[in-house]
Amino acid sequence: MDKLHATEELILQSAMQVFIEKGRHGARMQEIADRAGINKALLHYYYRSKDNLYATVIEKSLGKNISDVMKILDKNLSVEEIIRSFIRDYIEILRNNPKLPLFILREIGEGGEIVSSVLNRLVQRKDIVPRKVLDTIQRAIDRGEIVPLDPRQLIITILGACLFFFIGEPLLKITLLKEGFTDRDRFIEERKEAIFNIIAYGIFPGGDRT
Amino acid sequence: MDKLHATEELILQSAMQVFIEKGRHGARMQEIADRAGINKALLHYYYRSKDNLYATVIEKSLGKNISDVMKILDKNLSVEEIIRSFIRDYIEILRNNPKLPLFILREIGEGGEIVSSVLNRLVQRKDIVPRKVLDTIQRAIDRGEIVPLDPRQLIITILGACLFFFIGEPLLKITLLKEGFTDRDRFIEERKEAIFNIIAYGIFPGGDRT
DNA sequence: TTTATATTTAACTGGATGGTTAAACTTAAT
DNA sequence: ATTAAGTTTAACCATCCAGTTAAATATAAA
Questions:
Q1: So what's the architecture of A54-201 in CATH?
Q2: Which residues, 6 or more positions from A22, have their beta carbon under 8 angstroms from its beta carbon?
Q3: Interface mutation vs chain A, best among B61, B135, B146, B157, most A CBs within 10 Å
C-alpha cells in the first residue's frame, strides 16, 4: 500500500474501532487520532469532519457485512449445503469480528441522515437482495425437498440464530451461560452443529408436523 | 399514582425514549426535559445527573427485559408448549417494544462503568439463570422426547430467531425484504409459526439425522 | 391561612469538543 | 540539492452541554 492510502486506511481502521466501542457520539476525534498514532489535525486533512469519517466507517463496515453474507448465501449448492456452509462460515466471520454486527445494527437502528444516505447510496449502487438463494430454496420447496415455508422466514431465522450469541454475549454470560460456560471456543463450535441440526431436523425426533 | 412519583416516572419514561432513540451520548438533557414537558432543572432535582438517569433507565429496561423472558420461560409446561408459547409471547412483546432489545444489547455491548455496575447489582439481587426451563429441557432429552442437545444452545437459537427480525428490520428491508414485503403484521404473525415449525420439526421432511 | 414541597425561569458557568490555523518539520520524489 | 506533499505542533475558537443558582411561582397538605 502506498503511503497516501496507508494513512487514510490507518485512520479508517482506528476510527472503526473507536466508533464500534464508543458509538458515534461517544467517540472522540482525539481518541481516534491517538489510536491511529497521529495528530488530530490529520483526521481533518484526510476526512474533513467527524461526520464524514463516521459515514465512511458506516459505509465500509456495512458493505463488508452485506458482502460477507451475500457471498456465503449465493453459492451453487443444494439447500442443505448452503445452510450448512452458511452457518459454519458466518459464525467464523462473527467469531473474528464479534462487535461489528451489533455496531451496524445499532447505528442503523438509530437512523439519522448519515445512515440514511449511506443506505440509499448502497441500494442505488447495487442490488443487495439475495435472489439466488431465495430461488434455490423456493425450487427445493417446489420439488418437495424441504417443507413449504417462506424462504425469507427461513433465512431470517438462520441469521438470528447465528448472530445472537455474539451480539448478546455479555447478557447471556450473566443469565443463561452464567454457569458451566468454561470453553467459549468449544461452545461456538458446538453452536455450528446445534444450529444446523435444529434448522435441518428440528428437536422432536421423527416428528410429525402440525 | 401520587404526584411525587408521577413526575419521577414521567421523566424516566421520557428519558428511556430519548436514550433509546439517540443513545447515551446522543441524548440531550434538554430534549428529555422537552419530551417530558418540564424544565431541565427538574431533571437534576429528581435524578441528580445524566449518568444517574441513564443508569436508572438501563436498570429498569434491563430488568423488564429479563423479567419478560424469564416469566415466559419458567412455566410448568411441556417443552413443546414452552417453546410454542415462548415464541408467540416473546414476539408479541417485541412487536410492542421493537426498539428496546437493540437498545439493551447496544448499551451492554458498549459496556462502561455504569452498565457494569447495573449488571453487578442485578446479579447480586437475584438469580437470573433460567434454571427451570433448562431442567425441563434436559429431562425431556433424558426421556427421549427431544433430541440430545445442549439446552442452552436451543434457547439461544430460539431467542435469536425471535429477535432478529426486530433488531435488524431496517437492514432487512433493503435486502431480504426489499420486495414483496407488504404486510408487516402478517409477516410477524407468520414468523411465529415459521420459527416454531423450524425449531420443532426442521425443514427437511421426515429427515434423518446426520 | 400558613407551611412545605414541587416546579419554573432565566441566566450563568466551566469544561469539553470539533474544527482551524500558521508555521515548522519530515519524507518522498525528482 | 530542490521541490512537493505529508505530517506535526501548539495554540486557538465558537459552540455546545451538563449542571447550577436564586428567586419566584404553583401546588398540596395541614
A1: Orthogonal Bundle (1.10)
A2: A28, A31, B25, B110
A3: B157
